[in-house]
Amino acid sequence: NSNDSKMENTAEREISEAVREFQIGQITVKRKNLVDFYEQFSKVSHDITNEVIHTHLESWKQHQKKYVNGNAYVDLNKIQKWCEMIATSILKVKEQIKEFNIFQQNLCAFEATFEPIMVREVFDKLNEIYFMFIKSTVIIEEQPKQVIKIGNKVKTKLRLLVGKGFIDAGQNPEVSVIIVSEESAHEIAREENFRVEPCGELQNASMA
User: Fold this and answer.
1) DSSP per position, 37-80
2) For 163, which of 63, 84, 195, 208 could close a Cys bridge (C-beta 3.0–4.6 Å)?
3) Largest Cα–Cα distance of the chain, in whole Å?
């Protein structure tokens, strides 16, 4: 009869609404878990990049000063492998966050009850960590001679520890190195914002 039909329709709607609310709740929990993972990854990335830069890489630099141009005690190739793995991981998570944001936009457009979970702060933090890491892992593998005579060729070797995978194929990136006096070098070490007066400049295979 009509009453039974109405009851069945009402029950179906209630069940459908309950399933919908359950699914929304499940998706919300999963989104929050993802954001928690991104935040935790950011903290771990901060700690591990600091460990590599300020402990392992600093140790290599100290030994380089002692032995002039590198030494077998601190393995730079091993440090480079760590740097490549860390940089690759950060890039992958950054891409995941971008995809997560697109997913959220589509989700909110489909279901009005969804509210986007903000991940901009953690993305910006990862960006900051990533670019700081790249900047800190461009090193002078071979130092030029302590005394440079006018007219003589100058040879030095730079190394990007995050690897060549972050440079477009076929590209030969321009690298400029400013030559400063010993006095200026000491001032730079003491004062971060010290105004540098260059004595010359190196650019890839040329000297100015």
Assistant:
1) HHHHHHHHHHHHHHHIIIIIIHHHHHHHHHHSS--SSS-HHHHH
2) 84
3) 106
Token output for 189: 């070490």
Structure tokens at 113: 């009850």
Residue 206, pLDDT > 50, answer no
Evaluate whether 79 touches 60 at the Cβ level (below 8 Å). Answer: yes
Q: Which long-range contacts (CB under 8 A, 24 or more apart) does 63-67 make?
A: 64/143
Q: What is the mean pLDDT of the chain?
A: 76
| Mean pLDDT to the nearest integer, 133-160 | 75
* pTM for the model: 0.69
